[in-house]
C-alpha cells in the first residue's frame, strides 16, 4: 500500500538548534536571523525519509506579524520559507513534495470564534496567493474550529492545488476540537468541501488514537501528533516557554503509535511539534519493514 510520510516538527527543532531564548515569532524569528538552520532541518527530514516537507511559514500570518510590528515582512517571509524548502530539496537531491501552510491566523489552539467566515477566507486567500505558485499542495493545519477549517480549505482550493485539512483536537475532552465543537460535525462539514485528505495534527497521540475511528469514512486520511505534555498554558502572543515536552515519547514509542494508525487505514503519517528527524527516521523504518511503499503525494 502507498504511504505518504510527512516531516516532523519545525519550530521546536529549530529552537533546540538555535539555543537562544524563545520569541513570540518563534520559528519565523529564527528564519530571519539564521535561515541556514531552517534549511538544515528540512534537509534532515528529507534524509530521514520524509517525502512531504512543509514550508516554515506557520507563524508568518498577517495578524501575527502585525502584532509584533513587522507586518511589512509578510511577503518576504513567505517567499523565504518557500525558497529554503526548495533549496533543501535541491541540496538533498530527492524529489519530495513541498507543502504550503495555512495555519491559525492569530494563535494556536485558541480560535477566535467571533471572526466571520468572510473575514477568515479573505485572510487565508492572502496567504495562499503568496504560496500557490511555488508549492505542490497546501496543508490547512492545526485547525481548531469548524469556521477556521472551512475558510482555510476553501481558500486553499482557490489556489488550484491539492488540499489537506488537519484538525487539532482537545486533549482533555475526547471527541471535541479545541473550540469545543464536535469532531464529527467538523469532519462532516469539511468533507462536504472535498479536500484531498482530512487529518488530525498537533494533539497528543493518545487523543488521536481515541478519535481516529471518526475518520474511517474519509477516503484519504492520516495524522501527525505532537509531543507536548499539555498546551493549556500557551497564551496568544506568548512564547513556547509556556509548553513542555514529554520525556516518554521516544522515536520508537511514537512509531508504535503510528503503526497502529496505519493498520487502521491511515495513509498519511508524520510528526508535529516536539517530534524530530529521529522520529521520522523511525517511522520510515516502520513503514518500510511492513512492506508498504513510501511515496510523495504526487506519486
Question: What are its keywords?
Answer:
nine-stranded parallel sheet, alpha/beta, single chain, 11 helices, 299 residues, 9 strands
Number of helical segments with 4 or more residues: 11
Strand order of the largest sheet: 2-3-4-5-6-7-8-1-9
User: Helix share of residues?
Assistant: 40-55%
Number of strands: 9
Shape: globular
Tell me, rounded to a whole number, the average pLDDT.
93
Derived from helix and strand composition plus strand pairing, the structural class reads alpha/beta
Secondary-structure element string:
EHHHEHHEHEHEHEHEHEHE
Q: Low-confidence stretches at least 5 residues in length (pLDDT < 50)?
A: none
Whole-angstrom Rg: 17 Å
Cα end-to-end separation: 12 Å
Biggest beta-sheet profile: 9 strands, parallel
DSSP strand content: 5-15%
Quick synopsis:
The protein is an alpha/beta fold and 299 residues long. The protein is 42% helix and 14% strand.
Describe the 3D structure:
This protein has 299 residues and is of the alpha/beta class. Helices cover 42% and strands 14% of the residues. The protein contains eleven helices and nine strands. The protein has helices spanning 11-18, 26-33, 35-48, 62-67, 74-92, 117-131, 146-158, 183-191, 205-211, 251-263, 277-290; strands spanning 2-5, 52-54, 97-102, 137-143, 162-167, 197-201, 221-225, 268-271, 293-295. It has a nine-stranded parallel β-sheet with strand order 2-3-4-5-6-7-8-1-9. α2 (26-33) crosses α3 and α10 packs across α11 (277-290). The longest helix has 19 residues, at 74-92. The two termini are 12 Å apart. 54% of the residues are buried. The mean pLDDT is 93.
Amino acid at each position: 500500500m502507498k504511504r505518504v510520510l510527512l516531516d516532523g516538527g519545525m519550530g521546536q527543532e529549530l529552537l533546540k538548534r538555535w539555543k537562544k531564548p524563545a520569541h513570540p515569532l518563534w520559528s519565523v524569528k529564527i528564519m530571519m536571523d539564521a535561515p541556514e538552520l531552517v534549511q538544515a532541518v528540512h534537509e534532515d527530514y528529507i534524509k530521514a525519509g520524509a517525502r512531504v516537507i512543509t514550508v516554515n511559514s506557520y507563524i508568518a500570518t498577517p495578524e501575527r506579524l502585525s502584532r509584533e510590528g513587522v507586518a511589512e515582512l509578510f511577503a518576504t517571509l513567505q517567499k523565504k520559507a518557500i525558497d529554503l524548502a526548495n533549496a533543501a530539496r535541491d541540496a538533498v537531491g530527492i524529489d519530495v513534495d513541498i507543502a504550503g501552510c495555512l495555519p491559525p491566523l492569530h494563535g494556536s489552539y485558541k480560535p477566535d470564534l467571533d471572526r466571520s467566515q468572510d473575514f477568515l477566507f479573505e485572510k487565508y486567500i492572502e496567504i495562499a496567493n503568496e504560496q500557490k505558485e511555488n508549492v505542490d499542495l497546501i496543508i490547512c493545519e492545526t485547525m481548531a474550529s469548524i469556521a477556521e477549517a472551512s475558510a482555510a480549505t476553501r481558500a486553499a482550493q482557490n489556489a488550484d492545488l491539492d488540499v489537506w485539512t488537519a484538525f487539532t483536537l482537545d486533549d482533555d475532552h475526547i471527541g471535541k476540537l479545541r473550540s469545543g465543537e464536535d469532531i464529527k460535525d467538523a469532519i462532516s462539514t469539511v468533507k462536504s468541501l472535498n479536500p484531498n485528505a482530512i487529518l488530525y495534527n498537533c494533539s497528543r497521540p493518545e487523543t488521536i488514537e481515541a478519535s481516529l475511528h471518526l475518520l474511517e469514512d474519509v477516503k484519504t486520511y492520516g495524522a501527525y501528533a505532537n509531543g507536548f505534555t499539555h498546551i493549556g498554558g500557551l497564551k496568544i502572543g506568548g512564547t513556547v516557554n509556556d509548553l513542555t515536552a514529554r520525556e516518554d515519547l521516544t522515536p520508537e514509542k511514537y512509531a508504535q503509535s503510528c503503526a497502529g494508525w496505519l493498520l487502521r487505514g491511515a495513509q498519511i503519517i508524520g510528526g508535529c511539534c516536539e517530534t524530530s528527524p529521529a522520529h521520522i527516521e523511525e517511522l520510515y523504518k516502520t513503514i518500510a519493514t511492513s512492506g508498504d511503499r513510501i511515496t510523495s503525494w504526487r506519486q
